[in-house]
Model the fold of this input.
Amino acid sequence: MKKIFLLTALAGMFAWSTASAQVRDPAMSGAKLSIGADFALPTGNTSNAYKLGFGGSLQYQQPIADQLNFTASAGYLNFTGKDAAGGLLKFRDYAAIPVKVGLRYFLAENFYAGGELGAAFGTSDGARTSFVYTPGIGVEFPVSDKGSIDLGARYEGWSSGDYKIGDQVHVKNFVGIRLAYNFGL
Done:
């Protein structure tokens, strides 16, 4: 985990040092659609009930001002329940469909910070809909005229859920990692 954050920070510093105001890479401008793999590392009480979460997502970006993009995303996340009470109990798996909108500000041509708000629609038995807030950072690496690799890290908080043993536990918070490919539109 620390290596991923360090790699993201180093890539961001490199992007910051090589950014140019006059020349813009075509892969870094215009509307984009991305498809990505998501990994969720539960934190707080959520880590007592769930192992690593995983899933996928789609994200749309549209520039609305210089260095500022509107984002809209939807995905699927699945968390595997852990054993509790020495293996006598097991938390049920939990799955949700998060749908979010937000803003992404490019601090340099490739390095960004942003945030999203939305809802996570639980798909497991007894699951509820949660309010979602997500601040994050990331870096985009151009790989073609209209394509780029997007590596982002975020903290994601979900509003609903009580921590219960033997009943459905709703995810409350996690650190998310997303690796995606952006297609220029």
User: Anything to note?
Assistant: The radius of gyration is 18 Å. Residues 15-22, 162-166 have pLDDT under 50 and may be disordered. Strands lie at 32-42, 50-65, 68-81, 83-84, 89-90, 94-106, 111-122, 129-142, 147-158, 173-184.
